[in-house]
Amino acid sequence: MSIVKSLVKPVGRNVRDLMLICGVGPKLDEQDRRVLDETIFPYLVGREDLKRVLFVGCHWYTWHYKKTFADKDFWTLEIDPARKRYGAKQHIVDSVEHVDQHFEANSLDAVLMLGVMGWGLDDPEVANRSVENIHRCLRPDGVLINSWDDVPEHRPFPIAELPAFGRFAPWPFPPFVAARFVCEEQDLQHTFDFYTATK
Ligand SMILES: C[S@@+](CC[C@H](N)C(=O)[O-])C[C@H]1O[C@@H](n2cnc3c(N)ncnc32)[C@H](O)[C@@H]1O
């Protein structure tokens, strides 16, 4: 059975990826994705001062984000080389911990790190260093959106309490008028935290 699965899985993945490329691919039907597509991304795209945007962590359901941000200087970064296929043209294969090796200080306007902590970025020291290095690369008042699942199996440490978030101010995100939005319809309780970089 597992041999059959291991033969069928890559075929299914390639069919799905081909459908994505043809613009008829599936979309993840979850509240967090709707909130992103309908509220968060349109706001960010509409902000003319947010030109250089880094999106961390790529998966099949993030494939179309490069189209959403087509008018921006849009970059993606993902630790898994195999997921380069879901990234932007300007893609970096590395851990977000090393973001400062790829971008100059104060050179990014926005960093979107969605569902990475608790999904691979599980060591609090590495996560803290990642947030510090993101802060270094963001310009003053640059935007960080960090999202995570508020359930024990994907909350390996108190995520929002990392000391490096002290370098940021909570940002009441205009469409929500709040610096946090919790997707309460979702079992994973996906939580968006909004920050601006203080320098
Ligand atoms: C649950 S997926 C989230 C995908 C996407 N960011 C989103 O919108 O949901 C987590 C992704 O983060 C990647 N990841 C985990 N640790 C990472 C790290 N240290 N640096 C960069 N990417 C990492 C994983 O390989 C995986 O593709």
From TrEMBL:
Any Pfam family: Methyltransf_11
Protein name per the record: SAM-dependent methyltransferase
One annotated GO biological process: methylation
Keyword set, alphabetical order: Methyltransferase, Transferase
Residue ranges annotated for the Methyltransferase type domain, each copy included: 73-145
Entries under InterPro entries matching the protein: Methyltransf_11, SAM-dependent_MTases_sf
GO MF annotation terms: S-adenosylmethionine-dependent methyltransferase activity
Gene3D superfamilies for this protein: Vaccinia Virus protein VP39
Origin species: Algisphaera agarilytica
Keyword Chloroplast: no
